[in-house]
């Protein structure tokens, strides 16, 4: 391979205004770098090639075009000096079909160790030309300082060949450098007369080949010190408090990675009082210093290291070995002063003011087809191979070679981040040794393979060595393969059974001789494929980490992974919260009262918080604090005031978000007093006050309005003493109180309380500050109705450059329409309903349009609410619609990652004139922030704020025959026709009965029979002309025989449900007074076993006027029923229902307004708790201590202290099985006997359910029923 150096005849073209536009912040006059080219070199595979080199002037012609167009060609330009390069422009060869379509742009200071320029930190390739004449220019987002430029063609016109005209733009660059050898340092003492106590700025550039060393050590007058240290390729900014051997370094922040790459890196540390901005290259972190450092003055600064004593406590324990450039402290050039030998600078050790660099030529194995083949010349009985490597992969082939005399094949490879050597022969493993650990950490590791007289040794990092003995010579036959090996056809040659190596190697030695990789690159020595020569292309994808919300980043050579466990977030980058934003949202998923994690801003910065949700007609969020109990105070001499502070379970940012988002908030504030005044004093200053959220003291009490300095009784004019505005201000010797609710949201919560009048003899007081309680979610119900396809709402530009999530609910009858759209110059993002069964998420971040689609089995234009969530990050784009399977589109591995938008965000319509949306959009959130649709809809034609009609979507949450009732913001469940109660009619109504306890429910009889009956009858009228009964109840008892339910009519007809003496369930019917009663055996098992059973009886036909009794005496009763009734009933009854009447519920919850008579003790109990009937809300029970960090979405946490979880689980399993089995047996039996009541109907076909199905007899099952028995849902 021949290098050709051509001195250019320069065509001077100075575009002053153009260059200023490209880089307006240059300090020096900018010209095209064409005039500064001193050398241009080319590389090709053979000596016969032609080349044309001309600059890109208006009349320029020709260009560079090698004879052979392949991926091993490159064009290199050497500038006169290091220059700041700001832009690059390319053009095809003049008058030809030769141009580049893609190329790599690389830079270097020395002509070696090249560094590729990456756009957006991810894109290595530049898009080139589409013809020979047009100019394609790129302004570099980050200017590059370099003396060498190299262009590597990747793709070119397939109908032509490589062709290029090139122009570079930039500015002159001034550089002051100093070199340290690892033992020297510079000591700088700032002039205290010009020191700025409140602000310090230190900036510099550095480069090094070693991964550890102290760069800067700063001390202030008090002895505290700052240290900037390079450790394992990262920069640590540390603080040390005090002097002496006892002082330790405390890391403040870590930035950067792979900084030992022998390239320049920029550092800037700016302190403004106690706030520090720490920048490494393009990444900045901000942190707060301790108070003692806020106004400190730097006494001295040591560059390049410090004394030996100062290194003992550092991580690296060594001084810096490398170069520093342009070191500025408060705009003072430290290197200039050192060169001038000024008194403020002390030089210690060997310091040079030039940057001398060792020439190490690395090589990158970047693709699955990469390998390096080196010829081997036998050197007798000993052999050695040494190299250094770095990688992120846990596995990969490092080297392999065939042994002489067909003795086998040696494989040295990475496995589980350890080095492993094996010798294979005819399918057998002859030798197997391992060495090293954690070799995939991205650091340089040295590897040595040594063979001498039948003994193998593998040594990692010069310390970790493993050896093995062999009975055969171990020496390469003819070739040594590194990183991989070529796949050969026909089955001969190298066939790699392991993963390929992806990483970098350098300092490769065979038998002690350094391999000249430049000669390999020139094809003068060895062979290679898909290697990046003279550069290490390793990239740390975890620095800075793209994992959000504390997700842990790990990586391989080509990608990274985020571990989101225990963060509360999910997705490829831990971006999306797994929790709901309010109790309101949990309620509308069917969840009941309990503890839930609430994430107020979704993917935003506010952390999730565990909060109790009280689900009633409203979904209350309850935030506790450290003292919600009544606190008593007594007179104490010397104490004029009692001050109480309240620490809440949520932090200030979370509480503010809760209050802002809530519809209403309140907090109880009460004061009980005995000779202790509250607010009004003789001089007007209140004795007591409370402090709100902003830290401001408030002089009004609970129930009064802000600023009134009154209590609730003063506002209502009903205080005990009218001349005062608070009851306690009367200074009475009797106990009085002033209590009420604080509800002014801007003042909540109560942070502190001051009580003043407690120092007099006889003064007593007590106060209580209740928990903060809020209900409603203004964001959850924020909706707009779009009634025209041309209508839309517009909002400011959506900023989601690296991570974007969009979620909303919609309902429509339209078949298609655009939900939202935001455009940029080329980029865009759009979500639309593309068909009744498809939602489409499309976007472009510069790699071309991408689409993510979700297809649904059922139509989405059904006027029901549907939930959509789209997310796009640097790794992938995903789309979720309701509970349907999600769709995911992976991002290109080497593509643009920044979403750059600049137009307004359109909601319900589009700027590109596509079909708008007809229907409702609700709770629209972009990166956790809710857009106020209703506010914009108020002033936008064709759009209406709000959107009613929620029962069509949420009505199924009302269980057990509860009915959904529409509300402006949501819905409620009407449980009046259900035997259940609760938010969703899900809570059973149970009572524990004892002998002598009964409940009687009396119906209004027909008018013709009513004239001669007692006044005991109910005033509630019902249609008693019944064609059948629908009776259901649950019971739990250990008593047999027992009467469970008895229904009788005024015509001496009755229905009885009972347990006979064997505990079997019998149903006794008498439908005609002149016929005998019939008994149906519903179960052949003993049900008096202390477990919960449910009975359901239905009948159709006949017309009855009935009276309902629950274990009650009434007139003429069947003898067997009377006998059982006399025994009474001991056990549990729950959810008793007769058609639409729930007598037990009426007796327990509405005894004063229902026609019920209760005899004996009766109280509500949880003895009938069993399975949840809501299919949407599965509940579980945990101890709070066991629940931290493992709470999933929708799981309520109930305080179950002193409960045995294992035992509970066993009991629940029994209860579930027996309940279902009893119900199945009962249904089958009644269906079989149905012809007794309706003989005209054909006999039903026998089912497969066997009445002999055995019941569970778990020994853990409880056999004793007690009123305080507790059941747990699962």
From TrEMBL:
Biased composition (Polar residues): 1253-1267
GO cellular component: membrane
Primary subcellular site in the record, as a coarse category: membrane
Gene encoding the protein: LOC109094914
Topology in the lipid bilayer: Single-pass type I membrane protein
Annotated ranges, domain Laminin G: 175-355, 361-536, 782-947, 1008-1167
Record-annotated disulphide pairs: 920-947
Pfam families xref list: EGF (PF00008), F5_F8_type_C (PF00754), Laminin_G_2 (PF02210)
InterPro entries: ConA-like_dom_sf, EGF, FA58C, Fibrinogen-like_C, Fibrinogen_a/b/g_C_dom, Galactose-bd-like_sf, Laminin_G, Neurexin-related_CASP
SMART domains, per database record: EGF, FA58C, LamG
SUPFAM superfamilies, alphabetized: Concanavalin A-like lectins/glucanases (SSF49899), EGF/Laminin (SSF57196), Fibrinogen C-terminal domain-like (SSF56496), Galactose-binding domain-like (SSF49785)
Region (Disordered): 1238-1274
Domain F5/8 type C: 26-171
Keywords on record: Disulfide bond, EGF-like domain, Membrane, Repeat, Signal, Transmembrane, Transmembrane helix
Name of the protein in its database record: Contactin associated protein like 3
CDD domains from the UniProt entry: EGF_CA (cd00054), FA58C (cd00057), LamG (cd00110)
Location in or out of the cell: Membrane
Residues annotated as domain Fibrinogen C-terminal: 574-625
Biased composition range(s): Basic and acidic residues: 1238-1249
Residue intervals passing through the bilayer: 1206-1231
PROSITE patterns the record matches: EGF_3 (PS50026), FA58C_3 (PS50022), FIBRINOGEN_C_2 (PS51406), LAM_G_DOMAIN (PS50025)
Family: Belongs to the neurexin family.
EGF-like domain boundaries: 538-575, 948-986
